[in-house]
Amino acid sequence: MADITPRLFSVGEDRLLHEFDVISSSINRGLILKATTKTDESSSPTALLPLGGTDPRFACANNGYQIKLWGEQSRLKLPSFTNNSDSQDEKGGKDDDDNDEDDDDEDADDESTGEASKTISKDTLRCVKTTLAPTYGGPVSELIVIPSIGKDGKTLHDSQYLFYSTYSKMTGLLKLPLDGDPFKSSALIAHSGEISSCACTCDGRYVITGGSDDHVVTVWRVSVNALESSIILGGDPNQAFANVLGEGGQEGETFKEFKDFYYLCQLKQQGIDTREARKITNLIPPEQVVNLFRAMGYFPTESEICNLKQELASEAYPTGPDGIPQVCFKDAVRLYVNHRSVFGLKRGEIEEALQKLIHDDEEKAIKREDLLNIMKVYGEVMTPDEITTCLAALQGVRQKDVNSSQLIEALPAMMDADDVATELLGLVK
């Protein structure tokens, strides 16, 4: 990190990133927890790496094939609009009430353990960027900074590369800064099975990997020439993201559909029924970026929307008269590729989620009223007005022409996984 104060972090399958108070910890007092941050809603973290510099950040890989960059909240200068999506705290909900009760119990238990347990702070880190990770050989399981030594053999420069390994066979290099460009990563098969550990020499010239299945320790010489050639030959990064977006790249149907939805978002921002002259800015604000994602079949949670807004605020995006960042088409493609689920939303996941709500293994459907009530109370809760707005949009009617009862009655009385996918999520069979 930028200063010399020792810091200790850990991540786990509970999706929590912990920082421990190394200075106050001791053999007698034990390891004291200082702060904790939730990293993901669905994916579990698989690797964590501090990135040094004047603005230190943390790279956290997860099993959703993403690498998220986290910055310290005290160092970030984010405008107020980034907190608009923190509706969970504002709206409340049953989960929050349950958590409050748990917190009360924990506080009662902690009274006998000393004051240190009462100083734990939450959300000291903010996710400032989400990027696509290498997708071969399973999720990234380890990240290492490749040191950059000057020609004199002594001067240490800011590193430009990361070494990574996956759970199965693969290792490679990543070019900094991370942005999700597939041409800025390389990969090779290092072992016949699981890679148990990796290390890098202090001069950055060699990397050592150990295989748990083949019982082999391999020493690799670091050569960035192949990676740099790949970046040059890859050409325009916009074309690379278009290729990842869908089959056919910029000539494919997915890309054309994305462009149509992007233009529609521009119209919606100015008002579909407006009679005023259209202002073609080729830019859309964050709320329309979220609508664009949903139109393409990716439904971000409220916390993911908050992460997106923080990324737009912390990166160099143009801003409108109100100071809110604006996103051009090529950046919208890049953001979508980096933020969406790599494997998309599968029917089995919808069935599994619905079955948890039904609480009966023999039943495969749920009453529409029960499902809507659950949406108002549990998880990232929705208000009745929000539900009405969404149903009107999904049913293709103007909200002012119908009431909420009519919209609800248009849904099937008993809703199974297919009904949820088509009637509530707007997915095509």
Automatic annotation (TrEMBL):
Source organism, top-level taxon: Eukaryota
Subcellular location: Cell projection, Cilium
GO CC entries: motile cilium
Keywords: Cell projection, Repeat, WD repeat
Statement: the UniProt record of this protein carries the keyword Repeat: yes
Keyword Repeat: yes
Segments of this protein annotated with the region Disordered: 78-119
Biased composition (Acidic residues): 95-113
Major subcellular location class: other
InterPro entries the record matches: EF-hand-dom_pair, WD40/YVTN_repeat-like_dom_sf, WD40_repeat_dom_sf, WD_repeat_EMAP
Protein name per its UniProtKB record: Uncharacterized protein
Organism field: Bigelowiella natans (Pedinomonas minutissima)
